[in-house]
Amino acid sequence: LHGVITLSDPEHAMLQVGALYSENESVSKASSGVRYQAGEGIVGRILQHNTSIVLGRISSEPRFLDRLALYDLELPFIGVPIRGTDGSAIGVLAAQPDVPADDYLPDRTAFMEAVADLLSQTVRLLVNVEKGQSIASERDELRREVRGKYGFENMVVGHSEGMRQVFDQVRRVAKWDSTVLILGESGTGKELISSAIHYNSPRAHNRFVRLNCASLPETLLESELFGHEKGAFTNAVKQRKGRFEQADGGTLFLDEIGEISPMFQAKLLRILQEGELERVGGGQTIKVDVRIVAATNRNLEAEVEKGKFREDLYYRLNVMAIRLPALRERIVDVPELSKFLLSKIAKQQGRDLRLTDNAIRMLMGYDWPGNVRQLENCLERASVMSEEGTIDCDVIALPDNYGGGSAIIPSAHNIVPEVDLNNPEMDERERLIAALEQAGWVQAKAARLLGMTPRQIAYRIQTMKINVRKI
Length: 471
Description:
Layout: E1 2-9, E2 14-21, H1 25-30, E3 35-37, H2 41-49, E4 53-55, E5 77-83, E6 89-96, H3 105-150, H4 152-155, H5 161-174, E7 180-183, H6 190-199, E8 208-212, H7 218-226, E9 227-228, E10 240-241, H8 243-246, E11 251-255, H9 262-274, E12 276-277, E13 286-287, E14 291-296, H10 300-306, H11 311-317, E15 320-323, H12 334-349, E16 354-355, H13 357-364, H14 371-385, E17 390-391, H15 428-438, H16 443-450, H17 454-463
Helix pairs in contact: 5-6, 12-14, 15-16, 16-17
């Protein structure tokens, strides 16, 4: 009895002998270099057509190549395909019985096909193992990249006293599971800090899930956070896990937590207290293990006093508070921060970029109401305008009222007072502008104040020709 396993070599589009059984050792040694093109000879045809071929006597088939010089041409030949995960042929199992063709030849063929099926399962298992190893390797590499990106040594940009306190707090809270509340104006880097907390914590091997609470109306927010069952509402065509379930074992970052309604605050409080939820339209209680990191640019203590934010929820969130200083409060960090941001932009653009001393002095003389986000946008715009890659004052665009002096810290009288948006004496345009001013010109927040969707408020801003570039 002789047997041969021939496997496909996708890189060279050929079949190559992978294993051979024969009592003739010289044949076994000579088999290593034998190859077949797809469709070439009987073995090639089995691979090409993905079907078994049985010959009662080899000499009766002129297309039989016998490159191995292994077979007795007067005896039968059985060749069956070895199939991969998708059912296509990836190899051929061939054998020759040591007796002439007889009534048992179909049984021998069925036995060969069963053996080939076992080989197929082994091959599929090996392929899956290799894929798993490859995925695990890619995952570990991504984890290393993420840890490098959010590691403290790369996150620490700036040496002002305020930022040193922030970095010290992040180091301390990262190793525990306590709920963290990050406070700071828009653009100060709250999401970056939340990422640093997660990727330097014991939960770093699990998911970090983000959600901006101000970006969705309340009806969608509940489904987005808690998930929903099939048929729970129109267009709920299948069951969907919410962000809490997606973050199970990891961290959930809830940005703009101060924007949720009192009714939704009660639902959120339950899951923070009990660690369990129910999907929209479902009755099953689901346990989750999630660390919460929340962020807001509102004064939640003042919101509690006004009755706009639940006191019990506030204390649930405010286990460990981290306050991020505004950029105007750490203006000494602007040179180092600018160079760091510019290096990122240079990498994206694939060229060298540098700031002149005059440009740095100009950047330090501005108060940056939009904080780090505004500074990064300013530098990116300046880099686009700089043909040679040297950024000087002439390509830096700052507001018209910029005086070039020292940074100005806004006083209390500069804060926009709250206006009654239901005042019947206000027309629609005045009401819309008042809402935008109260929301800091963030359209999603203004939409919530007016009971609109972000799309509706964007349409009205466009049709009423309201200039929102002042942000």
